Amino acid sequence: MPWGNQGGGWQGGGRGPWGQGSRPDGPQPPNLEDLIKRGRERLRSVLPGGFGGSFGVTLAVLVVVAIWLASGIYRVLPDEQGVVLRFGEWIKTTQPGLNYHLPYPIETVLTPRVTRVNRMDIGFRSNVGERGGIHDVPAESLMLTGDENIVDIDFSVFWVISDAGQMLFNIKDPGPGQFDIDGPQATVQAVAESAMREVIGRNLIQRILTEGRQPVEAATQKLMQEVLDSYKAGIQITQVNLQKVDPPAQVIDAFRDVQAAKADRDRSQNEAEAYRNGIVPRARGDAEKAIQSGQAYKQQAIAEAQGEAARFLSVLGAYRQSKDVTARRMYIETMEQVMRSVNKVVIDEAPGSGNVLPYLPLPELRKKPAGSGQ
Amino acid sequence: MSRHPVLAVVLLVVAAIAFVAYHSTFVVLQSEQALVLQFGDPKRVVNTPGLKFKRPFLENVAFFDKRILALESPSEELITSDQKRLLVDAFARYRITDPLLYYQTLSNDEIARSRLGSLLNSNVRRVLGSQEMLSIVSGERGRLMQQIRDILNAEAGHFGVQIVDVRIKRTDLPEANSLAIFRRMQAERDREAKENRAQGDEIATRIRADADRQRTVILAEAQKTNEILRGEGDAERTRIFAEATSQDPEFYAYYRSLLAYQNAFSGQDTTFVLSPKSDFFRYFNNLPESVERGRAK
Lengths: 374, 297
Description:
The complex is a heterodimer of chains A (374) and B (297).
Chain A: H1 17-21, H2 30-46, H3 55-70, E1 73-76, E2 82-86, E3 89-94, E4 97-100, E5 107-110, E6 118-122, E7 124-126, E8 134-136, H4 138-141, E9 142-144, E10 150-161, H5 164-170, H6 185-202, H7 205-209, H8 213-230, E11 235-246, H9 252-321, H10 323-341, E12 343-346, H11 362-367
Antiparallel strand pairs in A: 1-4, 2-3, 2-5, 6-10, 7-8, 9-10, 10-11
Chain B: H1 3-24, E1 25-28, E2 32-38, E3 41-46, E4 50-53, E5 59-65, E6 69-72, E7 76-79, E8 85-96, H2 99-106, H3 109-129, H4 133-137, H5 141-156, E9 161-172, H6 175-245, H7 249-264, E10 271-274, H8 289-296
Antiparallel strand pairs in B: 1-4, 2-3, 2-5, 6-8, 7-8, 8-9
Helix pairs in contact in B: 3-5
């Protein structure tokens, strides 16, 4: 069956030649219609009337031929490239827009999407339709690091078909279909997994978890590109994007505890600093207070001394005017003041009773209210 | 109506020609190569694409892919040279370089895949089994993959197949070993967490001690200044008093004593037991002597 292997993938994108040709509003090449019309007129002039009965048959044949010729019209969408095969041989690549190829079985066309950025998720699948539908695929995401630890990595690879011809004719995924019109998905995935594991295997877990994101992405992208280029796969990796870089679920608590411990450390430090900031300025304030009080004492002592000295000197000056009188006056004034406020007990010694010790209950006297002294 | 049998004959002839033409041509796709067989006997290899011809009915054609094809090997557990278990899966990419040899030795793709698959498996096992686990996972990975590819290539050459690439995909530990690693990772993290917390305490204690020291020193310094100032004040006062009192020390003693009496005996808690004969009562019973003398006249 020589033509048999032109089944399935032959007309890419599920758009058969007839489907395209029979579009009612699709533009038809004018020269074709003219040709048919002219041919029909010529036929009619050659066989005037006599062929009248089979005219319908002829018309039907011509219509079939016209449709067959028109089936070569195809459209290349803006994100596609047309790869035209003549008897299976790649003869040209056409750009977006309306194009024409000789009808099947002479020529066929494949239209892979070359500018579309394809995304491949590895380590997880996002289920479109389900709410928040991301589920992990541990078999893909758990990897050994260079220091024999295990890390849980989810990543996405973005890739485009950079060369439609290379992609179609150099590489084949396992699976049915003659051509992988959407690109060699399985190959990209296998290469991605292999490359990521190689890169992770070269690195230490601490580096991967902390600063390593960007270098890991870059190294994986480079490695993937090298491998795919060695296959001449016509695939360009535009981006490798690490979605999740975590320790495995079994030990993530321990890793989180490390983070918590670091936070605790910072908290302890902050608290201590708060303590310091709370007491040192206060101590400085207290110190200032002590200094000021010392200063105050000094100035007070000096001022008081100066005042007292001045007072004494004034009194001395007056005393020198008349020493005797002043001394006596001062004595009496002082005694007056003293006697006014203290409790007083006056005992008149009776003549001749000098040997009798008078009874004097001092504690009771003391208890009596002020001014009631005997 | 005599024209219709003619038409029928014409159609028949056209159909016959088409039938023969159909059986004498075949199409080789850009991605293919073909082997023309005469009753199963390989005649020639066609490896350019396009419309090709063959002898109708005598010859038939077998098509082989010209592209790089995939070969996946299932996950295999192997024991590395340092007696560690490792789950490895690898994949290869190969190309049919000699359709004739390929057809003769493997006859079809299914057999080819199973033969190549078992070759891949045994070589992965052999090469990786002689290595230590860490060199498989990290350092030597690239070199080992090349080594497997080269060995495989030497063997697959007999089948008209070229191995383009062999890559190790997953290198995982069996579950029991994974658990051991998880435990170790956990212990390491615990250690780190404890260290961090202890460091936190260390820093905090240090800062607090420093703060306490600062406070004590600041207060002590202030106290020192305070005492110095007080001393200065006292000294100055003493000097001022000394200067003032040195003018008449005796009067100062008298004056200061009187002030002291006033201040000392100011409260209610003092009881004086006095004799009317004391000097304070000198005039209690007596007039001044001059008046007394006047009255007596």
